[in-house]
Amino acid sequence: MRAALASLVLLGALGGSSAHAQGVAEPAHAEGDGERDDGASGESVESADSAPPTRCPRWRRRLAPVVSLLAGPVVHGAGSFTGCHRLTGRRLGIAQGVGFGMLLVGGAGLALTGASRKTVAPFAMIGIPGVGAFFISWLADVYAAITDGRSMGRPGPNTPYELRLGYRYVHDPHFDHGSFAQAGITGWIGQHRLWVDTDVALDANTQRVRAGAARRLLGGAGRGSHLELVVAGTYQRFAEDGFRSFSGELAIGGRVDLADVAPALVGSFAIGELGLGLQGIGYEATGGGVGQDSHALLLVRVGWGVYLGRYGELVVAYDHRRDGLEGGLSVDSVGSGNLGFLQLTGRGWFGAAPRWGLAAELTAGSAWIAGLSLLHRAAPPEEPR
After folding, report:
1. Using CB atoms within 10 A as the burial measure, which of 18, 68, 289, 307 is most buried?
2. With contact defined as beta carbons under 8 Å apart, do 26 and 51 qualify?
3. Tens digit of pLDDT for each residue in 102-114?
4. CA distance 339 to 362
5. What is residue 29's predicted lDDT score, i.e. its pLDDT?
6. Continuous H helices in the chain
């Protein structure tokens, strides 16, 4: 706490010195709108006056990551402001305020209504994205402070098809399965994305199949900013435990390249999804179908990611669902049993063989999942087939 307070005091001093410099020459590198002392160009925004820009000191850019880690959790945008990315700092501060406000509204609504089934969906759909906006604005500040407005990668096109074959280890205290073989295929037909994923346990009689289709509503067919409508279904069979389930869902989601929000965030993006579903469960002991028990699913997903190298990416996300192999987070609070899972995923392609790549995942719910898959795709459009 002392370190954070010290960083805030230092940030205030930097702001004061910047304001003093504005009265002499020009806004002191307002949102990177000037030249850097290493010759790299920064972010450009129109200044309040027409005076020539000044340089952002090297020591401020080196200090920015430290400030983003110490003061950033309290004041989102502190690191960006220290590194002379003032527009980014202001917009991240606004995102923090909006996210915190949504969290208060959603949390207060759930508390006042006792999380009633009649009102839990709208309040959760406000509160969970609020939590996402709050944490994403901090992660984005750390990213901007470390990269100093330089992208580590870029989004690439989606090829006509992509195949996946891999292994997942599922550590679940409630089930005996552990090792899974995973296979999947994703294909594009115009603005439509189709996919099928399967998980088959190697040490138990457990299977999972998930299939779906998505229609791109906004954005091209690449991995940049887009919005799409998703319809999906999931079948799971736990033969050794005597039950199976089927769920159907409808959601709308997509991603936003954060360079469109603030130039210093180039190379990063935010993802989100909102939807509803219905899951039915059947028990082999009674011999009925999957409609013996049923319950609604509230689907909310928020995350943040960065592009890495040539079409690779790394994503950290929270998924508010508990109907899969991951289950929901087990915590010692009233949220236990009501939370979804956290997931870290990454993918990349080999430079020498661009049609081949690797994907990895680490998931924390009531079960822990670690997985690694081999990827194969059609040749990207700009590369020779």
Report:
1. 68
2. yes
3. 989 988 888 888 7
4. 17
5. 41
6. 2-22, 58-70, 78-82, 86-113, 120-147
Residues across the chain = 385
- How far is it, in rounded angstroms, from Cα 17 to Cα 37? 18
Cα dihedral 63, 65, 67, 70 sign: negative
DSSP 8-state class, residue 260: G
What phi and psi values does residue 108 have, to the nearest 5 degrees? -65, -40
88 phi, psi to nearest 5 deg: -60, -45
Q: Which of 3.40.50.150, 2.40.160.40, 3.40.50.300, 1.10.287.130 would CATH assign to domain 153-377?
A: 2.40.160.40
Cα–Cα distance between 285 and 304 in angstroms, integer?
43
Question: Domain ranges in the chain?
Answer: 2-45+52-147, 153-377
> Which pLDDT does position 157 carry in this prediction?
80
Instruction: With beta carbons less than 8 A apart as the criterion, state whether 362 and 344 touch.
Output: yes
Residue 153: closest CA among 233, 50, 257, 227: 257
Count CB atoms within 10 A of the CB of residue 376.
15
Those residues whose C-beta lies under 8 Å from the C-beta of residue 16, and which sit 6 or more positions away, are none
∠ CA 311-137-107, nearest 5°, is: 125
Which pair of tokens denotes residue 154? 């870029």
Q: What angle do CA 17, 260, 315 make, to 5 degrees?
A: 100
**What burial letters (b/e) apply to 67-104, b meaning 16+ CB within 10 Å?**
bbbbbbeebbbbbbbbbbbbbbbebbbebbeebbebbe
Question: In this structure, are residues 318 and 345 in contact, taking their beta carbons and an 8 Å threshold?
Answer: no
Read off the pLDDT band of 31 (50, 70, 90).
very low
